[in-house]
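Q: Hi! First time doing this. I have a protein sequence and I read that you can turn it into a structure. Is that right? Here it is:
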Amino acid sequence: MNTDQDPEPDQDGLSPWVGPQLKPVEDAVRTILGVKPNVRVQVIPPNRDGTVNVKAVLHLPNGQAVTLVLVQKDDHSVLLQFPRHRDAARGPAVDSNASALAQMFARRQSTDGTADAQRLWSAVDAVGAVMSLDDRYYRRIIPGIHGASANLRLGFVCNQDCHFCWQGRRWPGPPDDIIFRWLDEIGEAGVRRLVLTGGEPTLFRRLPELLHRARHRWAMTTMVQTNAIMLGRETRLQTLLDGGVTRLFVSLHAADPTISDTMTRAPGTWIRTVQGIEASLASGIRVGLSVVVERANLDDLPALAELVVRRFVDPFPNNPMESVTFSRPQTYFDIGHHRESILPLDVLREPLHRTIRILDAAGVTPDLTTGSCAIPACVLHEMPQHIRLPDPALWTATDRAHDGDRATPVACQGCALWGGCGGPGAGYTAAFGEQGLRPFLHRPANMGTAFDLDWG
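A: Yes, that's right. Below is the predicted 3D structure, encoded as structure tokens:
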């Protein structure tokens, strides 16, 4: 197999970007294992275990594949490990291949071990934060109830520093040319609903050009996930209007400016977000709110609902805020903050119920159970009409939080809603076990319909 050929598109049919950045590491793995050119070496990101260890797959000419991990020891030498393969039917062949690789590795270690280790760890250092990522962080096509949509992340630069955000602050953004290539590939795939996210997408310098291309070349409707800080400026808001943006998904986490600015670690930005929302609603752009629920803002949530009605609904009878989505992140970038900030579900229940009643009375849709960081449905036992569950197949297609992290506590296994409900997540069960989990014995007859945006 020719290892120098252009990388193939991924499962969504989109060009890879992270993989090609890892070629220096793949070359070092090839050398350290002593494998021939007809063996394709594929380094598998992301590496989020806090080490520089390298996980790789060797695609052999006989069609078999071997997964291995190169571990950095305390003296910076290299240890070769083979994780247990789940497919027992492949076991003997894989074990034979692994044995041969281990022998080749041992032979090189006896003569070239020090140089090989330096080559490998230098290559890992050179590619830097890319080792923590994969292409799904940047773009993906997501199936939906009324057709597919696509997420396109315009990098990780942001004008807030939310302590609950899972994103790395030094993660690299893709170059502009690959962003525009992904847009065209998404359009060629027939997807006509686009979500632009970040970081903060309004800071992307070529946003006007990107929006124009999405609208005029591909006839896409576009939603922007934003903190709206920049949208109080008429010129920035006009950019979205000219680009045909139909909806904003704005993050605002408290009615109290001090609570909000503390959570976002960006003093003075609460008022700018509020002004940006008001300007957007006045311009005719539809707006939904995104609220992260944690210890800092739990008691403030009813006040936030009252703020929504007072400032984002009543003054805009022709274009009121249409929804508020509440989420409970599965993980934070700083794990210590996660443990300090999350709360058990039985503590969340009463403040959320009061908040939902205020929004519901004003005609604002409260959404708790559909997003990638959804709140488990058992919080809404007494309000089943507000349970809206997505198709179970959507969980793996939406966001990072549910990739390999759908813990299944005993209480959830017998729940009538399991599969559509995302569950509490591994981080929650590690902190609280099964506290607050209340399985449904039967599927409620009066559940809400699946929350799917009308993109206009």
